[in-house]
Amino acid sequence: MWLGGNGAVQPGPQPGSAAQFTAAPAPAPDADVNAKQIYHDSFILKFSPDGKFLGEIGSANGSKGSLDTKNVKGVAEIRFIPGTHDFIAADGYGNHRVSVWNADTLQFVRMWGAFGHTPSDDPLPMYKPDSPQFGNPVHCADPSNDGLIYVCDRKNLRIQIFKYDGTYVKQFVLEPGTRGDGSPFEIAFSPDPEQKFMYIADGSNMKIHVFDRQSLKELYSFGDGGRQPGEFYAVHNIVTDSEGDIFTAETYHGQRVQKFVYKGMVPLSEVKSGGASAAWPSGGGN
């Protein structure tokens, strides 16, 4: 069991005190709001399945920035790299990088920033898909079965793809007109061995995008903003199980988990025309 935190400016005022509810000054519209925040969550904790503490990466308030090889800074997600004893952290809310650590020794292995370059903490504007560095947050780092890692650069509205060793492969942009909290929040893959379909949780646009993973062609999307079943309020996380069912979690005032049950494959034309409600097309371009 692994726990990573993503809480900024902690410890804060005493819970329940008047100071806790004092509004902070609003940041500039395109500012990197995490650039000067102090992160209590500069660590990852390792536990046994029964809750025994086994070890720690980093220490509270210990981060020295994106080049630090002893601490993390606001990890958004942890995923194990298939066939290895390493895991990758979307490192992420405070840093501008992905970092890889050995699960046995808890030692640093490697890191990289956007396009596979050395990470940088230089303040840059958000919503720039051509930005030379990751913004905040780097919100997902999801490895596929065929040696690739898909990284959600949320506020730069893009997903960058790398090999396991950090070699840059390509990127694509998701909903380039998005502002606010950005577009790609998290990624899940279909459970078939080829992982043919890629599901992208888009928190700001309140939907799930369905892509053909190999071609990176968007097949369609489902969901919309709202409170009813099948609608979303800031869909934040997404995962699939071995049966193909999809589970989503909503943040902010969404505060719920939804389950979408796999019902089999249907022609994509039926999904697009509204003749089927399933989230699993039988092939692209039908």
Question: Please, could you describe this protein's structure?
Answer:
GO terms for molecular function: ubiquitin protein ligase activity; zinc ion binding. It comes from Candidatus Sulfuritelmatomonas gaucii. One of its GO terms (biological process) is protein polyubiquitination. The protein is mostly beta strands. A hairpin with a 5-residue loop joins β16 and β17. The C terminus is likely disordered. It has a domain of 166 residues: TolB, C-terminal domain (Neuraminidase). It contains one helix and 18 strands. The protein is globular and about 50 Å long.
Any chance you could write out the topology, listing elements then pairs?
Blueprint lengths: L1 E3 L38 E5 L5 E6 L16 E6 L5 E6 L5 E6 L5 E5 L25 E6 L4 E6 L4 E6 L4 E6 L10 E6 L7 E6 L4 E6 L4 E6 L12 E6 L5 E5 L6 E4 L7 H6 L13
Antiparallel strand pairs: 1-2, 2-3, 4-5, 5-6, 6-7, 8-9, 9-10, 10-11, 12-13, 13-14, 14-15, 16-17, 17-18
CATH homologous superfamily name of the domain at 2-13 and 29-182?
A: TolB, C-terminal domain
Number of strands: 18
The end-to-end distance, rounded to whole angstroms, is 42 Å
**Which secondary-structure class do the elements indicate?**
mainly beta
Rounded to an integer in angstroms, the radius of gyration calculated over CA atoms is 19 Å
Under the CATH scheme, the architecture of the domain at 2-13 and 29-182 is 6 Propeller
- The average pLDDT score comes to 87
What is the overall shape?
Answer: globular
CATH class of the domain at 2-13 and 29-182: Mainly Beta
Q: What is the fold-level CATH name, i.e. the topology of the domain at 2-13 and 29-182?
A: Neuraminidase
SS strand fraction: 25-35%
Unreliable runs: 280-286
**Major beta sheet, specifics?**
4 strands, antiparallel
Order of helices and strands: EEEEEEEEEEEEEEEEEEH
Contiguous helical run count: 1
Region (Disordered): 1-28
InterPro entries: 6-blade_b-propeller_TolB-like (IPR011042), NHL_repeat (IPR001258), TRIM-NHL_E3_ligases (IPR050952)
Keywords: Repeat
GO molecular function: ubiquitin protein ligase activity; zinc ion binding
